[in-house]
Amino acid sequence: MTNVVTGQPEERELLQAAFRSFDEAAHTLQQSYSALTARVEQMDLELAQSNEALRRQLSDNEAMRVHLDGILESLSTGVLVVDAYETISRSNRAAETLLDATDAELRNRRATDVLAGAGLDVCDRPQRIGQTVVSISRVPLRNDSGERSGHLILFQDITRIYQLEEQLQRKERLAAMGELIGRIAHEIRNPLGSVELFASMLQRDLAERSSAKRYAQQISEAVQSMDRLLGNLLLYTRPVRMVRDWHLAEPLIGESIKLAAHALTRVPVQIRVDISREVRSIWCHDGQLKQVLVNLIVNAVQAMPNGGVLAIGLSQEPPQALGMSAVRLTVRDSGIGIDPAHRSRIFDPFFTTKDEGTGLGLAIVYSIVEAHQGRIDVESTVGQGTACAIILPHPSIGGDPHEVQVRMRNEPESSDALPGAHEVMSAEEWSYE
């Protein structure tokens, strides 16, 4: 009995000590939990800040990527991005247009195969892709550490520069040829007059049915033909002096078509005329411009031996074409096209691919257009046709100051005289069978 009583205080002390230890452990655990909770909250805050910074960086990177893509797609220079294994990894819209392929079609192909398939090579000399003249170069592509990671292939459109160089070379060549031709024509014309005189005298003195008289007549006709040729030569070589004025476009083009009827009636030709209502009249010498149109129409018809479509269009041209307000007068055919090897020589005197041609028609056209302070551009695809565009100065587009006087000379004042006056375009069609 005594042992039980004496043992109860000891057990109570042990139990109390155990509870104290448990309280201390629980308190320590509570402190650790609180510290851990605080640390987790701190890490959550830091993670949220890191995520926000990462989100901003990704957003900035995406905006920069979109911006750089926009710059790349807006370049007029064609760009192919090629890796270290000569494989195309990216292209822009200009390159796709030049190569006539989409980015998906170009990607993962060897750049050398793509260029070879288009008949191109990386070199400084001008190369033609359809109607466009390009210069192709290679630029190394480096990463952030400065190491080469591939290269860029650049397609630079130099069509206008090439055209200007051609025009300059043509002017120099034609100037030298013109001076020589003028001297020769004058020297030939003098004795030619004597030949014509003696041939006429022989025709008068010989008997009516004499074979000699027929020979004299043939001599006279040959001399007259040669004289006409020399006249065309002198027309080409001497400076063209003209007085320009406002002339209504529709009658001018219509009369030119009538003057070329001798060629139009030989083959079935469908003629389409589109005249912009913004360009009612042309600032030109009407006789000289009619000669230009007749020559171009005749050439277009001769390029369509089996018939086809002849389209004549007149529209407003951007001011940068000539550095001033301008109009574009285009004669387009669906004929055989011009051999690329002949393209640079088509305006040279005496150059012709026709059996009966003299090679002076386009030379005179070029001279007249130059005298109008304009220019002529030619686009041609073999088997598809040719377009000759005459770009002429137009002092006041959209209401020229002489329009009232032009109307008084060329048309009635009544609006009934102008069918379709409220249409945007004036379109007419003729068919010659």
Question: What report would you give on this structure?
Answer:
With 433 residues, this protein is α+β, with helices and mostly antiparallel strands. Helix content is 50%, strand content 22%. The chain has helices spanning 2-74, 93-99, 103-106, 111-117, 159-205, 211-237, 249-259, 261-264, 286-302, 361-371, 403-410; strands at 78-82, 88-91, 123-129, 132-142, 148-157, 245-248, 269-276, 281-284, 308-317, 326-333, 375-381, 385-393, 425-432. The chain has a 6-stranded mixed sheet, with helices on one face. Strands 2-1-5-4-3 form a 5-stranded antiparallel sheet. α5 runs antiparallel to α6 and α9 packs antiparallel against α10. The longest helix has 73 residues, at 2-74. The protein starts with a helix and ends with a strand.
Secondary structure topology:
Elements: H1 2-74, E1 78-82, E2 88-91, H2 93-99, H3 103-106, H4 111-117, E3 123-129, E4 132-142, E5 148-157, H5 159-205, H6 211-237, E6 245-248, H7 249-259, H8 261-264, E7 269-276, E8 281-284, H9 286-302, E9 308-317, E10 326-333, H10 361-371, E11 375-381, E12 385-393, H11 403-410, E13 425-432
Parallel strand pairs: 7-9
Antiparallel strand pairs: 1-2, 1-5, 3-4, 4-5, 6-8, 7-13, 9-10, 10-12, 11-12
Helix pairs in contact: 5-6, 7-9, 9-10
